[in-house]
Structure formats: structure tokens, C-alpha cells
Amino acid sequence: MAYDRPTELLVNQERVPAKGKCPECSEEQLFSYPVLSEGGWFKVVKCRHCLASLKRESDPVGQITIFSATI
Amino acid sequence: MIIDESTDRIRNLTEREFEAEYGASRYTCNVLANRSRFVAGHMSTNIVTRAFSPIISLNMDYVCAVVGPPELDYPLVGMNQGNFIFLGSLATGVRKTVEEFGVDRLAPGDLLVSNDPYRVGNHVNDACFIRPVFHGGRIVSFTVIRAHMLDIGGIIPGGFSLFKKNVYENGLVVPPMRIFEKGEPVKEVLRLFLDNGRFAATLLPDFFTINSSCALGDEQIQESVERYGLDAWLGAMRYSLDSSAEAMRRALQTLPDGEYEGEDVLDTDGADSEEIYRFHVTVIKKGKRVEVDLSGSSRQARTSLNATPLDAQTSAALGLKVLLDPQTPFTSGTYRNIDLVIPPGTISSAMPDASTHFYWEVQAALVNALINALAEPLGSRAIGGLYGSTNLHTGSGMTPDGRPWFSAAELEAQFGGWGATDAGDADGHTGTFTLNQRLTPTEEIERRVPVLLTAREYIPDTGGPGKYRGGSGFRKDSLFLADGDHWLMPLHFRFPSGFGVNGGKAGRVGGSWFFENQDPDKPECEYRLVGATDTDGVVVSGVVDENGALDENGEFAFFARVPYWTENKGSTLRWITNGGGGWGDPFEREIEAVIRDVRDGYVTILGALRDYGVVVVGDPDEDPEGLTIDEAATAAARA
């Protein structure tokens, strides 16, 4: 699939606020976003304050859906 | 520096605990962990001694690897001392290829191939070959080779054009396919490659060599599993991964908690000179956790100056490894404590249908931005910036007797100055951290290409001054003996790349030129350039004055103002590379080191005074061993 080139000159990763409190540091700074790490792509919910992962869900597709791979 | 000495270290496990965890003794696991790297090394020896493509046999643009089975989630566990640009793509690329093809469809002796950057990273020339290793009817490993195919079709021979606007102009895109089935070639797949690429006669034997290299690795893994048992083989893989993860975790803990930002830039994507491409890296360190966030980086390029997220992952992990943990082997476990945050659609995470051909330039800029970000928190362990771009060249044409000629990735200035470290001065002629390749020997280039390499020498006063000097810029001159067209891709001559650290100064920025109408039939012609100023040439790229000479206050000459440079026999292409950054206050450099630099041509007498506060007396050309120091004048200069 083809994607449009971003219109903004500089691109930022969107972090979606998530509800809850970090069990490690008790801060309410949880955000949901994708990361690339050992094992590939993950959808994570992480604490902005201490970087603890409250959720790490493997995402085999990642950022790009390849049309021919969906056949 | 606080090191976490908690009890969760592998070394603290008792023998019984270790065997319960890894299925074999500590000794056996170490033997088998080394065995994975040994297997990859043997695969490498096989391919480098038999490949027909010079980019494999002479440049070593490949990597050989052992990857774990699906039950371990396809981890990279062993690799040869190959080309590091492929690291990030190995595990994830293998998983993607095998899963899409269908792991249940694989049989012993099969060889899969895919070259789609959006599946396996890199660019279409870098095909990924994967052989499943079966033992007792189950897959216990994969032997993998990532190697550069000399040609894969597309708009120019060899593919090294910055000006490809989309993936369709790159050449052939191969989804996961079986190129050898049960040891036998799948002829229709071979024909797909051969009918779409130039130089088919060279490519064909390379496919067989790659297959035999993967088969050799298969055989050696079978021997290992037979001798030590499957539990030990798989346990050693987990041990390798955990060891790498632990080594990086401990290394990261030497970094103070905080958020650190750094940046590098590339001049332009070649579409125009207006849009400058920024690589913004934020390293967030909290305890044993690290995020490397590329937010704030430029959007994807309009040309082929792009990379995929897997390529960016290579840079993030390799940059941290170079800075913090350079001693231990690299495996997928190295990534365990590093989360890469990379928004879609940046120059480092281009989306289809963008071309990612020049991904290694993106990788180099990312590493430079990362070491820039960590310069302050690392203190004495900081490293100066590198030379920037590999300044690629592709040329083709006809010799006077009507013979076609072609050269790719040979006549550029691929190597340059590194940044200095606390260990000492930096080298001036080494590849980027991510490129672990050799240069094609001059004799081989001159044998195949109508060209004479007439100069390759360091330029004084170009390495970043410091207590330890950055690597010097160097000049490379290539005199063409036939007419031809030249595609030039210098990407870092607009801004300095070799930043200094700990008080060190930046290396000087270089440029490139064509000197036309040299007469190659006259023996003295190669000497006519010696002593010539750069103002005699037509500037290709660089920040120059009105005469075309380097001037940091001048104007940027946009190299892509013409799509390619048509040059006649007798033209000389000149590169001057950027210098690497210095480390520490240059006025603290040992005086003896400065006088040695003047003797050896790294620093001029003027530069010694200006940059180092050292007054050198004498003639470095006529009496290099007779140089002396004016101690009183030096003391005054350094006061």
C-alpha cells in the first residue's frame, strides 16, 4: 500500500495518554505508542516518568501493511 | 559510575541453576555460543572466496548469520565480522520472510529469498537468503546471508542513484520465495533475478555460492546438535541472547539518568537544495531502561535518501554498543533494554512507495546524532563526530575502442575521518560505524575501469583540533581515461559532521570537484593536479567562494543541479572528505605530538600555532626531522 508523504517538515511520534498509575513509581504519566525492540514491533503502554512497561503486545505488522502479503 | 551488581547476573547462577536455565553446562553453552559465530565465519569464508561479484568478494558487502528457530522467535545469535548495516534487519526480516512464506512449507535444503525493504529492511540490492536447518524433523536454526546483488534492475546500472523517486524505480522487488528447493535451484526464480538485473552472468554463480554457504552452515550446525544435543544447542542460544542483554543493560547503567538530545543533518535529498534533512535523537535513560526517540526528525525524502525502521534500529543499537559496550558479541539480546520510538514517515522510517536505496547514509547520520546526544553525559568517554557521508559515485560509458565500462561504489570517498576518543587520535580513512567493508583495491579498479587513481592523501589542518586530534580529511583524485556519465551523491558537505567533544574542535568540511581537460596521454598529466588549487575545478558540492574554493562563509553548491555529470576523457574527479572531531582542549595537546603532526603532514606550521598554540620552527618538507619548538613563543601562545 502507498502512504502519503507527511506534510509537516519534522515528524513526531504520537503518544496517546492512557489511564492509570504506574505500579513502579506511582506517577500518572502513562502513554500508549509503538516501539521497536528485541522481537520486533510492540504496542506498549509505558510510564513516561520511569519508562516501565505496563503492557507490551507484539505487533507483527508494525507500521506498514504490505498489500500483497494480505493475499 | 554506578554498576548494578544485583544477583540477577548470569555469572551468579550456581552450576545447577545454570543447567536448569539453559539445558547445558556453562562450559558447553560458551562453546556453542562461540560455535554460532564460528559457523557464520565459515559461511563468510565460503562466500568471500567464491563470489564473482566484486562488491561481495572485494568490498565484503554481506553478512552471514545464525538465527534461532521459530520457537525462540527467530533471534540473531551469531554473525561473522560482516557488514553491520544489516544487523537490525536480520531477526525481524527472517521472521517476516519465513512467516509469510509459511514455516510449515519449508523442507531441508530449501533456500528462501526476499529483498523487499518494507519486509526485510535495507534496499532491493541487499537480498536476504534464509535456509532452515532441520534436525530430527524440526527446524532448529536458520543460516542466513544478506548480500548485495550487483544489479537488480531499475533506472541505472548498479542501482546507486539518489534520484529514484519511488520503489518502482529501484528495480525488482521479490517477496518471500523459494530460490532453492531441497537443494535444487528453482529455475524460474533464478530467471526472475537474471532477466531483471544487469550482469546476469556474474549474478548466477553467486546464487549457487550463497546456497552452498548456507548449506555449509547447515552442516556445521547439524554436527553441533548431533554432538551436544538439541537442548544444549537451543539453551546456548538463549544464553547468548541473555548474555548480550545483560552486557548492554550493565553498560546502559553507566549512563546517568536523564534526557539527552543530539542532531545531525544531511545537506539535501537531491530533489532541490531547499529542504535540509535533520536527524533528531533523544536518548531517555531511566534506571536500566532506555528509549531512543527519533521524533523531531525530518519527513521522508522525495528521492531514495530514506531508510526503514529496521535500518534505524541498527543505528540505535550499534551507536549505543560503540559508545558503551564495544567488547561483547552482538545478538538480538542487545536490543532487549532499548526501545526505539520512531514515528512513521520520517527519513529513517519511510513508508511505501518511497525508495530506501541510500539507507546506509541515513544510518550513519543517525549514529552521528546519537553520539552527539550522549557527548555530554559520557564525559571523558564521549567520541567526536565522523566524516558524514560516503559520497557515492556511479559511472558508466564507453572506452575509446567501444567497450562499455561501469563502476559503482568504487570512485567515491567512502571512507573518512573518525572522531577522536580518550584513547587518542582518530584515523582519517575508515568507514562509518555501520559500514564494515573494504575498499576495492586500486589495481582492481584500474584493471576494470578506464581510470587512474592519481591521489589519495591526507590534507593538513582538516582533522578537528583537540588534545587528541580528529581523523584528517583526505583527497582522492580519479582521472578518467574515457568519456562517461557520473552520478555523484555527496550528502554532508554543507555543514560540519565531525563535531568536537570535551573542548575539542570540529573537523573541516570538504567538497568535490571535476577538473576537466586533463590530458591522460601525457605522462606528466597526473602531476599537473599537484599544487593546483581547487579554484581550477568545477565545483560539484561544498560551501565555496565565488572561485569554487572551500570557504565556510561561502555559498552551498548543490551537487544535483544536474542529474548526472557528463565528462570527457581527461576529467579528474576530486574528493576532499570531512575531518573527524577532536577530543579535549587542543591547547592541552602534548607539544611533541604537535611537532610530530607537522613532520607527518597532518598539521601545518600555521595550523600548529592557530589551533594548538605551538610555535614550530623549520621546514617540514625539506628537513622534517630538523623541526624544533620555540618554547618561549609557545608558552606565550598557550598562556
TrEMBL record, chain A:
Protein name: Uncharacterized protein
Natural source organism: Sinomonas humi
From TrEMBL, chain B:
Hydantoinase B/oxoprolinase domain location: 27-586
InterPro entries xrefs: Hydantoinase_B, Oxoprolinase-like
GO molecular function, one term: 5-oxoprolinase (ATP-hydrolyzing) activity
Highest rank taxon of the organism: Bacteria
GO biological process terms held by the UniProt record: glutathione metabolic process
Record-level GO cellular component terms: cytosol
Protein name: Hydantoinase B/oxoprolinase domain-containing protein
Lineage, highest ranks first: Bacteria, Bacillati, Actinomycetota, Actinomycetes, Micrococcales
